[in-house]
Design brief:
alpha+beta; Glutaredoxin; four-stranded mixed beta sheet; 39% helix
């Protein structure tokens, strides 16, 4: 387990951009039980590619064009119960973190695993996300950052 003084800024990075955290298995269950519409689930990580690419890409992708109806994140290596529950929703996908999963009407329609995040820029990753949003999501409302 990582110390809270190390993980708190990492948590705040996505939360301050308007992405709620799922800290327990129950939180994940409640999020995934909302089948209608689109949901983006982000598995956050303490690693460098999460800080330098994944989180900036998510924040950029949520600022323009169509958006998922719901967005949330779990923190791998910290909120282990929540992360395990999230990964159980896509058992045929090898676990990786950071990673992102887009659901439409409860069905997994897009996966962005770690190997497609590493060594790529936030802009490249954001383009993958916005492309999937354009294909599967109908809302054009930006996610509002918390003040």
């Amino acid at each position: 387990m990582y110390p809270p003084e190390l993980t708190e800024p990492i948590r705040k990075d996505l939360v301050s951009a308007g992405v709620p955290e799922l800290r327990t298995a129950r939180d994940v269950e409640n999020f995934l039980s909302q089948k209608k519409g689109t949901s983006l689930l982000i598995i956050n990580s303490i690693c460098g590619c999460a800080a330098g690419a994944a989180r900036p890409a998510v924040k950029e992708a949520l600022q323009k064009g169509p958006k998922p109806d719901r967005v949330a994140t779990v923190f791998a290596g910290v909120d282990t119960e929540a992360t395990a529950k999230a990964r159980a929703a896509f058992p045929d996908v090898p676990p990786s973190s950071p990673s992102m999963y887009l659901f439409k009407d409860g069905e997994l329609v897009f996966v962005l695993p770690r190997h497609m995040i590493e060594a790529r820029t936030p802009k490249e990753i954001a383009a993958d996300l916005t492309g999937s949003f354009g294909k599967y999501c109908g809302s054009a409302k930006p996610i509002k950052a918390k003040k």
